Fold this protein.
Amino acid sequence: MNLSTEKKNGVENGQVAARPIASDEADLPSAARKTLKVLRDPRLAAALCKAQLSMRGKARVPLSVRLFGRIYFRAGGYVEFGNGVTLVGKVTPIEIVSYKGSHISIGDHTFINYGTSITAHQKVSIGRHCLLGHHLRIVDRNEHGLEQRNVAPPAAPVVIEDNVWIGSHTIILPGVSIGHNSAIGAGSVVTRDIPAHCLAAGNPARVIRRI
């Protein structure tokens, strides 16, 4: 074997190269692999720390939640994040507001883009592995009624199930449920329930086809 071949195999003068190979890392415990990933990426480490500094003590925030950019966070009620949630508030801050007695839950590995606003007077539930586009608006109560404009109508829970994709500039109104594996087109206004495995779009949003 010549010298060039030895270098390709990571061996030179009989010594194994110090650089770890993929199989070495695969043998490490899950926690150790995650720690290595954070240590190698200062940007990720900063995002993990920012999430804790911004929301720790105000909500349930696992150590794997990451925040890039800014967030306006008001937790009068109970707010909980799942593992691996990513919040990107770089262009415009993300806004999460829970009023007293309300509950906001965001499932594992859900991605929330900049400018998104989530407001809960009663309950907003977002499932796992969801993708929320920028400048999305989710509310569980209208600001005023049609007849008595000085009296706020009752709140109605918003439920977004797992693996839902929601396009940018969408508005989701009180009492709406979106089934798992569905997608909502950009700029839609969702006023009624959307079944699972559907593509919906429009104002008001309607089901276009099954997916």
Remarks:
- Residues 42-55 form the longest helix (14 residues).
- Residues 1-23 have pLDDT under 50 and may be disordered.
